[in-house]
Specification:
The protein contains 8 helices and 6 strands. It has helices at 22-28, 33-54, 73-88, 91-100, 115-128, 144-160, 171-175, 223-235, and strands spanning 14-18, 58-65, 102-107, 134-142, 188-191, 210-213. Helix 5 links the parallel strand 3 and strand 4. Helix 1 crosses helix 2 (33-54). The relative contact order is 0.19. Bound molecules: farnesyl diphosphate. Farnesyl diphosphate binds at residues 19-24, 33, 37, 40-41, 44, 61, 63, 68, 79, 82-83, 86, 138, 193. Farnesyl diphosphate (FPP) binds next to helix 1, helix 2, strand 2 and helix 3.
């Protein structure tokens, strides 16, 4: 399992991955789009494990957006099946998370998720809540605008109930009502597959994130690509609006 891990002077604390290009990967091989997602799910595990081994403490993987429900029903079903299969692996996945002390957290709207998937999500979160070395966020039924809207509603309810005054609404308070509350914002967001958009991913959290993109399709993404991102990250001069 020990891979040849280069030494990095500065590591991002949090990396966001937009897992794009699965459909094209499958099409290039004359396969169904779902075959690309299946391969992409293996890449998710491989890259997540490698990042943990390198020392990345937080990762967020964009697995299903609030807009992805508009895809053909068969594709949506295939994706839901993949998520369930991953969560159902039970002992195998628990052992895997145990080795790296990985906590799983799902971010996104839960209301309209299939009930059986929701139960598996809650179980996986509960079982891994004891780990604090690495946090793996899986953005599922996630949209950055929906997340901010959700936070606004929660805060409004508190104001309405008299628990909070309008003057107490600060950026910090809003940050405490988004799904990744308590976690550092992503230092760098990675998008493979030749697209240069955020696509509603971590809208609040990405205010100062670096962006890294490449033409590689997600299923082809390798540990070597992670090394390139990390090498590149050392050279970025992050000023957060200062000079
Ligand atoms: C976008 O690529 C990808 C998705 C909508 C799904 C991503 C999900 C996975 C990789 C599965 C993750 C699995 C687990 C267990 C978390 P696309 O299909 O839009 O690619 P295209 O632009 O080439 O069509």
């Amino acid at each position: 399992m020990e891979k040849n891990i280069p030494k990095f002077d500065v590591l991002p604390q949090h990396i966001g991955f937009i897992m794009d290009g699965n459909g094209r990967w499958a099409k290039m091989r004359g396969l169904e789009r779902s075959a690309g997602h299946k391969e992409g799910a293996m890449t998710f595990r491989r890259i997540g494990e490698y990042c943990a081994d390198v020392g990345i403490k937080y990762m967020t993987f964009y697995a299903f957006s609030t807009e992805n429900w508009n895809r053909p029903k068969s594709e949506v079903l295939a994706l839901m099946k993949l998520f369930k299969e991953y969560l159902k692996e039970g002992d195998e996945r628990i052992a895997e998370n145990d080795i790296r002390q990985m906590r799983l957290k799902f971010i996104g709207e839960r209301d309209n998720l299939p009930k059986d998937l929701l139960r598996l999500i809650e179980k996986a979160e509960k079982e891994s809540a004891k780990y604090d070395k690495v946090t793996v966020n899986i953005a599922l039924n996630y949209g950055g605008r929906a997340e901010i809207t959700h936070a606004v509603k929660e805060i409004s309810e508190k104001v309405k109930a008299g628990e909070l005054s309008v003057d107490e609404i600060t950026e910090e308070l809003v940050g405490n009502h988004i799904y990744t509350a308590g976690q550092p914002d992503p230092d760098i967001i990675v998008r493979p597959s030749g697209e240069y958009r955020l696509s509603n991913f971590m809208t609040w959290q990405s205010a100062y994130s670096e962006f890294w993109y490449s033409d590689i399709l997600w299923p082809d993404f390798t540990e070597e690509d992670v090394n390139k991102i990390l090498e590149d990250y050392q050279k970025r001069n992050r000023r957060f609006g200062g000079v």
